[in-house]
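Predict the 3D structure for this chain.
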Amino acid sequence: MPIIPDDPSAPRPRPVDAHVALPGGGAGTSPREIVDGVRSWVTSPPLRELVARFGGDWPAGDLAAVLAWLDDFSARHWDFRGGRERPEAREPALDPRTAALVLAAASALGLVRPVPPARPGYAHLVVLGGLAHACLRRVGYAAHLLRHGTRVAGEVAVLGSFRPLSGAELRALAEAGVAGGGTEVDALDAAVRLAFRVAGPAASEGVDAGHPDHSWSSRTYRPAGLPPVRVLAAPSSEPDRRRAHTADTQRFWAEHVRLSPGDPVLVVTAPIYVPFQHCDALRTLTVPYGCAIETVGVDPDVPDLARLPEPALTPGRHLQEIRSAIRSMRALHASLAGG
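Done. Predicted structure below.
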């Protein structure tokens, strides 16, 4: 992982108030506008400076060529998972100047600071699953938004998979006083019961295909005074290769709910995942269904979430998720170019 040595001309961290907008997801956003948003993000000064710091020479070519090059470059320099789950990723040894540049770039690119929802109401609210602690925090934040004025006309969709929880995740749940289950969707289900104060689902359905990557489940809760909450575990679109990922869960949900063009959908995740999961939502929900996507990260200052665990975010984690955003934007661009 070559890093350019410090010298007076080396790039300096950008101010933390710099901001690069993500591709737009508003109602009526055209494919060209989305592509322009992808181009603006991937060719922005913070990303260019980060590439230069890791020894890269910015490529020539059109947007597809730049995205392909960035995918390859980030695979060589910023992929610390190597096909493993996120908790198993190694942390790179970075000098202080490089670590500061990574954090500044991550902040400018939209991976650090939470932004509150822009609208007073939405057609649906989608909570994306993740590691066990994230399941608790994201579901808790969704409940907080609803109890503090955010309106949802349709449903709250809590999306996950049958990914087995690690030992560390099970310990995090136990330390938070949450019991039940051994999979991501179990953690989401427990989080819904806790945050929405419900005892059990009003309706359940699903298919047990004998393997978690082929199976699915749906549980619908009806909390008093709030919209229905559906906890959905999706099958993988490539069950012989991998578990279900974010795009699979979003696509599977879209097949189970009636989406109309222009429907505003609020997606809740963690700030570090906002760029990549926003672009996944554009690809799986906006492009085929025409709905409007807004993606927000959990606000860690919400009092309701103070007791829930939150891991430290390292420079390696930020680099990994900048890579995730690049790959998601490449897939989004390809879906538009192919359409």
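The radius of gyration is 20 Å.
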